[in-house]
Each structure stands twice: as structure tokens, then as C-alpha cells.
Amino acid sequence: MPSKIGFVGLGRMGANMARRLKDCGFTVSAVYDINHDIAQALALELGASASRTLAEVTAAADVVITVVTDDAAMRSIFFGETDNLLVDSEGRLFINCATVSPTVHLEVETAAEEAGAQALEGCMASSITQAREGSLYLMIGGKEAVFTMARPILENLASNVRYIGNAGEAAKVKALVNMVMNINTAALAEGLGLASALSLDLGMIREVFAQTGAHSRVLMTDGEDMQNRDHACFFSASHAAKDSGIALQLAESKSLNLPLAAATKAQFDRMVAAGLGELDKSGIAELTFPGRG
Amino acid sequence: MPSKIGFVGLGRMGANMARRLKDCGFTVSAVYDINHDIAQALALELGASASRTLAEVTAAADVVITVVTDDAAMRSIFFGETDNLLVDSEGRLFINCATVSPTVHLEVETAAEEAGAQALEGCMASSITQAREGSLYLMIGGKEAVFTMARPILENLASNVRYIGNAGEAAKVKALVNMVMNINTAALAEGLGLASALSLDLGMIREVFAQTGAHSRVLMTDGEDMQNRDHACFFSASHAAKDSGIALQLAESKSLNLPLAAATKAQFDRMVAAGLGELDKSGIAELTFPGRG
User: Fold this and answer.
1) Nearest CA-CA distance, residue A74 and chain B, Å
2) CB contact under 8 A, B208 and A173
3) What's the fold here for domain A172-288?
4) Do A213 and B267 touch (CB under 8 A)?
5) ipTM for the complex?
6) How far apart are the first and last CA of chain B?
7) pLDDT tens digits for B125-160?
8) Which of A89, A136, A153, B73 is disulfide-compatible with B68, CB 3.0–4.6 A?
9) Mapping DSSP to helix (H, G, I), strand (E, B) and coil, where does residue A7 land?
10) In what order do the strands lie in the sheet with B93-96?
């Protein structure tokens, strides 16, 4: 078991994964966030140090788990000119859990290896509660030997650890999962929105959906929230827009026309444009219910 | 228990519902289809008479179950000038199981009552196997007293009989179910199509979808068929286009903008235009997989 773990990106997921590993007996040695106040608060909670630079995290840890926002943030933490994680990183293992473009995972793996370090992608298909409880669904991309090395940590974070293939492959699967999930979410918002417009009982409609071909996982996770306008954020609309965008870029690279994915991204983009990007993805119902938004 | 049951519309659903009621000990006295050969074959199988006119069905039955194609077909069997089911229909009960516009159910109920008969909508959210086995999911619209009268028959056809409300209300719920189901189907076809374009293992992808937020009922019913191009028809693409159209008309009547439902209808319309309308709805994957269609 590695003695010291660092965390970069202390949002809803990263912070809870750090708490979980601490609970499991790991030493969380250093935490970093672009918002240093957040890092200080979590450092205090976990008895870690709040690093002021990325290089400090690498210096203080054997394994660094990163959970940042998007492609730009990933490139910034690994390739930033004045400060990055690869400085003196020989022997380190980076486990990258953000949902980013497959190509970024490849770039990071190559650069890590050149620096004498290792990188692994650990794409998460779960939410905050699962991060806190160590019951994530993790899809792994990278070298199998690196996966074997990381396994003891991964299995404390996840109830399901699935090796997908080389670097970038897990991110492709993740993009597909979120693309379909986002479409199903938009579909549900339209179904419940129209039901509301027709003055049908929404509790009854959700029950009928659950018993018929309209059933979906998002009906269980988001249906009641759409009805009750409870859009406290588990997975934000702006993240949904980003992830659908990754999938659409992959489709474009293969000259594939995906009208549903495109219409769904347009809906989440509308939310962001309307200032609703930090609502949970269930907030898409604000666009489809009569008299809302 | 009524002694004689007639059937109008002997397609994949109607014929199997007739077989089921016969198995349950009911007398199927008369069957009718616009294709008289089909009626004759089923009449022979069930020991019924193959009616040449709709009025003959009404004359030969206490309860007439109709399962026709669309709004036009429903209006034709109840309001056709030269021949229709309401001729001398006093005391008859009509149970109408086709997926048609809510307003048509209201028109039929009013006309039936004027003729001294009763009408009930029995919207089905199930497929051929369930019709044959008597395990349909039935949503009932109409007068509760009429529902009570029809119950012994309905419970032999369905494992789940749900009273929704007045005439037309069940058709609204059914339109919503199929609208959402159709969108989820189109979403799945896009996800698997992109997975195929990215050379990912489709069996693995379906497994990951089933364990994550991408899960849906249609993943279970249509996922493998999309992968294997097995589009033997349970619920046709042209029916999907029709049902999404009913939902979109309801949305339009409420000035509701539903971009996903619209994009889905456009996809099923493309299938119909390409001569693929009689494939199962899973055939929508022919539009989204690289190298197909």
C-alpha cells in the first residue's frame, strides 16, 4: 500500500474520494485546488497539507489522484509552463478521474512516461454519494501493469473496477455513457413536461414510465427531482453539456451524424446560456415544463 | 362472463389477443380485418366466423375488441358511411386498444353512447409476446362503470390493468410512454453506433450501459438486436413515427417545444422514407451505425 496520496481538484467528487481514502486508512498527504481556500479547509479536515503549487503535490505524494473540470484544466495541471505535476515526478503514479477527451489521456500518459512516472485513467460513472462511500463505478484505461499497481487504491474507491483498454479507451466509453444518459435525461424532461402541460398526475406518470418501455435509470435518479424542481447539483448541466460535446467531437471525427446527441447538447447549452449551468442535470426540466424558465 | 367476443384488426397484437381469450375459455365469435384472407385464416384457427362487414361483427358479438392502425382506421371502423361497428350496436361494449389520438377516443365514446353502446380505451404498453400470454400492461380510459363491466376480459389479457381516467386520458399517457421510449431508443442507437465507429466492443458497452446512468428498458429489449441487425418487427418504425407524432401534436396544442421528441420523429420518418418503416423500431440503428443504411 503506498504511503502517501495527493489530490488535485477538490470539487464534489475529488473531496469525497479523499475523505473515503482517509477513512480506509490511507495517508492523504497533500491536497490542491485552484481555489486555495477549499484546499485549506479540506487539508485541515484530513490532516493533509494544502499545497500552493502542483509541484508540491508531486513532491509530497506517491500517488496523485486528479479530478479536474475539463480538457483545459487537465492540460494545465500536467503541462502548465510555470508549474505542473510532472516536475520531478519520477516514480509517481497519476490516476486521472475527470471526464475529458480521450486524446488528453494519451497525451498525459506519454508525458508521464517521459518523466519516469505512470498514468492511468479512472473514469467514473457515479456520483457524489458513491464517491464518499467508496462505491464508484470506475472504468480504467492505460497499461495493465499500471492498473495492477493501482488496484489496491481503486478498490477502496469503487465497488466496480472495470479495465477497458489502453489510455483513452475508458474516456471513450465514459463519453458514450454520459451522451446516452444526457439524452435519456432530456427525454424524461420532455415526457414529464408534456404530462404536466396535459394536467396528468406526475406521480402516476412516473409509475407508468417505470413499468413500461419508457423506463430508464435517469427516471429513478432524476424523475422526482424534475417534478419537485429540486435541482441541487450532483452532476451539473454544464458538465452534461461538456460531456455531450466530447461525444459529438468523437462522432464528428468518424463523420457520424447523431441528431439526438446534438439536440441534447443544444438543450444543456441553453441552460448554461440562461445561467442555469450549475443546476443539476435534472434542471433541464426547467426548459420543458410549461410555466417554468 | 360475456358469451361472444369479436375482434377487429388482426395484426400482430389483435390476433394474439384473440388467441389468448380463446385459450382462456372465451368464445371468439367473429373476426374482421381489411385483409379478408387474414380474417379467414384466424377464423379457421379459432373456430370463429370471418366477418365480411363491420356490422356483421357487431351483430355476432357482445364485446368487440378493436386494434387498428391509426386515427383514420379508428374513424373508418366507427364512422364509415357504408359500413361501421355502430350499426345496431345497442348494448355492445367496444374496447379500443390501438394507439390513437386522445380526441378519437372521445369521439368514439360519444358516438357509442348515442347508439346505446359503451366504449372503453385499453391502451397497451407491451408487445406481441405479452399479447399472446395475457400479460399486457393495459391503461384504461373511460367511465369507471364500463371499466368494471369489462374487467373480467381485461384481466385475462393483462397482468397489469390500470385505470387512468376519462376517455382520452389513457391515450395521452400512452403517447407519453411511447414518445419517451422512442427517444430512448434513438439515443441507444446513437450510443451503440458511435461505439461501433470507435471500434469498441459492443457487448462490453451494453454491459457498461446497463450498470450506469445510460441504462434503460430499451437497452434490454433492443440493444442486442441493434448490434446484430435483427430487426424482426415487434413494434414497427412507422408506428414509432406515428406515436411520436401524436405526442408532438399534443405538445403543439400546449405550445410546448420538445426538440428531442421532434428529432426522434424525424429519424423514424427517415426510416419510413428509406423504405425501412416495417422494420422493428430497433432498426433505427441502421441510421446511426457506420457502414449501414
Assistant:
1) 23
2) yes
3) N-(1-d-carboxylethyl)-l-norvaline Dehydrogenase; domain 2 (1.10.1040)
4) no
5) 0.92
6) 51
7) 888 999 999 999 999 999 999 999 999 999 999 999
8) B73
9) strand
10) B49-50, B28-32, B5-8, B63-66, B93-96, B118-124, B136-141, B158-165
pLDDT value of residue B79: 98
By the 8 A CB rule, do B16 and B131 touch? yes
CA distance B173 to chain A (A): 7
Among A32, A150, A46, A123, which Cα is nearest to A84's?
A: A32
Distance to chain B for A90, nearest Cα, Å: 33
Query: Beta strands of A67-210 (E only): which ranges?
Result: 93-96, 118-124, 136-141, 158-165
Tell me the pTM: 0.93
Domain boundaries, chain B: 5-167, 174-288
Q: What is the pLDDT of residues B14-53, one digit of tens each?
A: 999 999 999 999 999 999 999 999 999 999 999 999 999 9
Just give the CATH number of B5-167.
3.40.50.720
The verdict on A227 touching B (C-beta cutoff 8 Å) is no
Whether A4-167 and A172-288 share one fold: the answer is: no
A-to-B residue pairs, Cβ atoms closer than 8 angstroms = 204
- Say which CATH architecture domain B174-288 belongs to: Orthogonal Bundle (1.10)
Annotate B272-292 with DSSP letters as a single string: HHTT-TTSBGGGGHHHHSTT-
Percentage of chain B modeled with pLDDT above 90: 97
Supply φ then ψ for residue B204, to 5 degrees.
Answer: -65, -45
